[in-house]
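Q: Got a minute? One more chain.
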Amino acid sequence: MRWRAFLTDPLHPRTVLRLLTAGAVLGLLVAGAVIGLGLFNVSTKAGHWPGVSWVLHTTFRSSVGLRADAVPPQDLDDPGMVALGAGHFDSACRYCHASPGETRGATVRAMLPAPPHVTAAVQDWQADELHWIVHNGIKMSGMPGWPATRADEVWPVVAFLRAVPEMTAADYATLTQQPDGDRCAMCHGATGASGNPHVPRLDILSETYIADSLHAYLSGTRDSAIMAEAVKGLDRDEIAALAARLARSVPEGTAAAPDPGAERGRSLATRRGSLDVPACRACHGPWPEPLNPAFPALAGQYAPYLDAQLKLWRDGNRGGGTMARLMHHAARDLTDDEIAALAAYYASLAPATLNETRD
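A: Always. Here it is, folded:
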């Protein structure tokens, strides 16, 4: 009768509180024993308890779906975007996820959870979801977050991942080839001008500017995960030698036919922003007097790359050398249309180094 009364009669609030307190204390004791005495087996060989993998993966997918809201760029499927993403994947991601046609290493397969092969990792994800995963990483999985603040350069990796399902091992090898073992040439080409509009041409830049940029990437003062990965391990002597070699390239190419966008950009390039902000041409040319080699030449630089850099300057996310503050002030009031016009203008000029630029 007592048990029936216990099950059917309302419990006194004090009794409920005591039961809850006892349950909480018991839970803490069990948790303390598991944590302090090592009762939970953390060995990857032991695997997860039944159902844990499903819970973790479902939580992962739901979390990504809730938070992924980045808007993909219109040129996401551009071959240049795919090529740039492939280059970064090859140096930063391939060890864990392998490449198309390649088998993951035994050590990677022994991880828990094991990083999926890249062909499996990209299945059933939308572009914005892939962007969120690559940029944020995944807790307790070994998947790191993007090692830079800016999120725009994640899109080339997304472009590559979207192309993976149709990519063969030969396709991947073509995208990631390094002529004569030159890893810089994988993205920038053997002469510093790859033709990929999302990768800056280096043949127009001075030795000083190239060296300063590499040091900025290495120290993290210029924000780029792709370039931080590319320069890792370089010392001062190697940077100096690399800058000198790249600066020896002679720019080739001709001026493009003028269009309305470029003509507007020409006008903007001559406009002085304020007493503290000189006109674009005063630092980047064309200019009748010798210019400081610490500034980059822009004549013939690819328009998509210039467009992206000017937006980073405007939004304050780029970083760089000693003149970074000046460029932030120069770009902070530019509209998207003005940035596109400036990029079109400089891209229309014949490729040339800083003091050889002709308008």
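A: The first helix runs from residue 2 to 8.
Q: Perfect, thanks.
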